[in-house]
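Kindly review this protein for my students:
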Amino acid sequence: EVQLVESGGGLVQAGGSLRLSCVASGYTFDDYAIGWFRQAPGKEREEVSCIHSSDRSRYYADSVKGRFTISSDNAKNTVYLQMNSLKPDDTAVYYCAAKNYPRCGGEYGFWGRGTQVTVSS
């Protein structure tokens, strides 16, 4: 059974930084994509970043480009989301998700429970 556990959320002032972690277990995909999503109250869920195994390329939503960086440590089965220059609009529950197909976007089959990020002005 694939399990994804996020951590690293919290309360930070605007302009600050946080690093989210997503630890995967039961994960034996040869081809994969792991994405970070966020959902704020009253808003649709947004895929903010993704990394996949095909060519290790990374995807970023325009709203976070230049501020967020996704990375992975395969030895630790962990994907990170480094978030810098945070804005109040970044406030949301952040989820990681995985699928056994190396393409960002579309449907993901496995989801974590999320971690809250709150950015104060």
Remarks:
- The radius of gyration is 13 Å.
